[in-house]
Design a protein that fits this description.
With 457 residues, this protein is of the alpha/beta class. The chain has 4 domains: 4-131, 3-Layer(aba) Sandwich (Rossmann fold); 148-310, Rossmann fold, CATH 3.40.50.300; 316-389, Helicase, Ruva Protein, domain 3; 403-447, Homeodomain-like (Arc Repressor Mutant, subunit A, Orthogonal Bundle), CATH 1.10.10. 46% of the residues lie in helices and 14% in strands. It is built from 19 helices and 16 strands. It has helices at 12-24, 35-41, 61-71, 86-94, 107-137, 148-160, 177-186, 205-213, 230-233, 249-261, 287-292, 298-304, 321-336, 345-353, 359-373, 386-389, 409-423, 428-435, 439-447; strands at 4-8, 28-32, 49-53, 76-82, 99-103, 167-170, 195-199, 214-215, 227-228, 238-242, 263-264, 273-274, 278-283, 307-310, 342-343, 378-379. Strand 4 (76-82), helix 4 (86-94) and strand 5 (99-103) form a beta-alpha-beta unit. The longest helix is centred in the N-terminal third of the chain and has 31 residues, at 107-137. It is elongated and about 105 Å long. 33% of the residues are buried.
């Protein structure tokens, strides 16, 4: 079982003998004369096992074990202690050592300890691999459904979660954009660090700048003490800028510089402060159209749109509506301690027919309402709001046989374009994609009712 070893001993002869013995047995071996040197080497060196003496000048072997446990938790230290020095051995195990051997150590016994450590490491790595495979098969927490649109989105979340790339999450209000951002954080190696979220539409530019970048004492009237901003407070975690499309242009310029330089300058300060956090943004606006209309900076758009994740509207996930409703009912039952209510077939039909302009948030509200007014046994159609019960799908229909009353093909096209645009909540980029045309052709069509939609053949 080949592996790599770092031997740490201030006695050069001892280190050389152990190195030669382990190399003869097929291991890759490096040496270090002190604990400090070992930690320095491990910045660039990858090893499986560290064999360390205890009594060394400067950092002891026990202290090295503690440092390895903190900085390199996957490494397995083996400590060499003096005969009868049981207290030191116990201290080393508590500090993170995997095993200990009494000196003078026999090379056969050392190899057995190394092989046992490598077997333990292999089992640990296999468990981690199997857990990762299982995690990929399980649905992401908070998302319920089996639709292809949802599967595509969750697959993208898993693929980019552990990347450092900036992510732009797009989607209508109520689709769950913050849930996507939190999933990116929870599935990444940053999950132990903070997840910090801020709504960019909720405050004016001066206050938003102070919240994001911090301020120094005396920067403005109420700045009685210095305060670090959210970019710094997020540490090595994730900062989530929700509704970034609502950010004033003056703040867009400052955010662009922050993303380019990876530093922030507190309000009133003159020192640049670096930050480590991954940046995730979200918007319900069509930012490409906002760029065309000079309401959003094009350079900032490209900076935040490194990875794009589109959250599908609920109407594009028709097959998920009942699963989501059942998920909400389970949460309500858990919270209230009462049995979960069932949805009758007539209520289910109405839920599936509705187009859900408010998306998942609207569904959750209506299910909560239905539970509140039900008799506690089941959810029936009568428990749903009138707008759900009375909803009828909009369709282009020919309702006359009289030629004089029929509309032209151009008028039919114009109505269809506007219907698609309305159903997509005014998002011109998505509308153009559905129609199979570019956005400029869409603009021309909207400006000129007589313009023909170009053929895509």
């Amino acid at each position: 079982m080949a592996g790599s070893i770092l031997i740490v001993d201030d006695e050069e002869d001892t280190a050389a003998l152990l190195c030669e013995a382990m190399q003869r047995r097929g291991y890759t071996v490096e040496t270090a004369a002190s604990g400090r040197e070992a930690l320095t080497k491990l910045r660039t060196l990858t090893v499986d096992v560290v064999i360390t003496d205890v009594q060394m000048p400067g950092m002891t072997g026990v202290e090295l074990c503690a440092a390895l446990h903190e900085r390199h938790p996957d490494l397995l230290p083996i400590v060499l202690t003096g005969i009868g020095d049981l207290d030191t051995a116990v201290a080393a195990i508590r500090a993170g050592a995997y095993d200990f051997l009494a000196k003078p150590v026999k090379t056969d016994a050392l190899e057995v300890a190394v092989r046992r450590a490598l077997e333990h490491l292999n089992v640990k790595n296999e468990v981690r691999r199997l857990r990762a495979v299982a995690d990929r098969e399980l649905p992401i927490k908070g998302f319920a459904g089996n639709s292809s649109a949802l599967r595509e989105m969750t697959d993208m979340i898993r693929r980019v979660a552990d990347s450092d790339a900036t992510v732009l999450i797009t989607g209508e209000s109520g689709t769950g954009k913050e849930l996507v951002a939190r999933s990116l954080h929870e599935l990444s190696s940053r999950k132990a660090a903070p997840f910090v979220a801020i709504n960019c539409a909720a405050m004016p530019a001066p206050l938003l700048e102070s919240e994001l970048f911090g301020h120094v004492r005396g920067a403005f009237t109420d700045a009685k003490t210095s305060r670090s901003g959210l970019f710094v407070q997020a540490g090595a975690g994730t900062i989530f800028l929700d509704e970034v499309g609502e950010m004033p242009l003056e703040m867009q310029v400052k955010l662009l510089r922050v993303l380019q330089q990876r530093t922030v300058r507190p309000v009133g300060g003159d020192t640049e402060v670096p930050f480590e956090a991954r940046v995730v943004t979200a918007t319900n606006r069509d930012l490409e159209s906002e760029v065309d209309e000079k309401r959003f900076r094009e350079d900032l758009f490209h900076r935040i749109n490194v990875v794009a994740i589109e959250v599908p509207p609920l109407r594009a996930r028709a097959g998920d509506v009942l699963l989501l409703a059942n998920h909400v009912l389970e949460k309500i039952a858990t919270r209230s301690g009462k049995p979960k209510l069932e949805v009758t077939s007539d209520a289910a039909r109405k839920l599936m027919d509705y187009n859900w302009p408010g998306n998942v948030r609207e569904l959750e509200n209506y299910i909560e309402r239905a539970v509140a007014i039900s008799d506690g046994k089941e959810i029936r159609a009568e428990h749903l709001p009138p707008k759900v019960l009375q909803y009828q799908s909009a369709r282009l229909e020919i309702t006359t046989d009289a030629p004089a009353e029929m509309i032209t093909l151009a008028e039919m096209e114009r109505r269809y374009v506007r219907q698609v645009l309305a159903s997509l909540r005014g998002n011109k980029t998505h509308t153009a994609r559905v129609l199979g045309i570019d956005r400029r052709s869409l603009y021309r069509r909207l400006e000129n009712p007589n313009a023909q939609i170009p053929s895509t053949d």
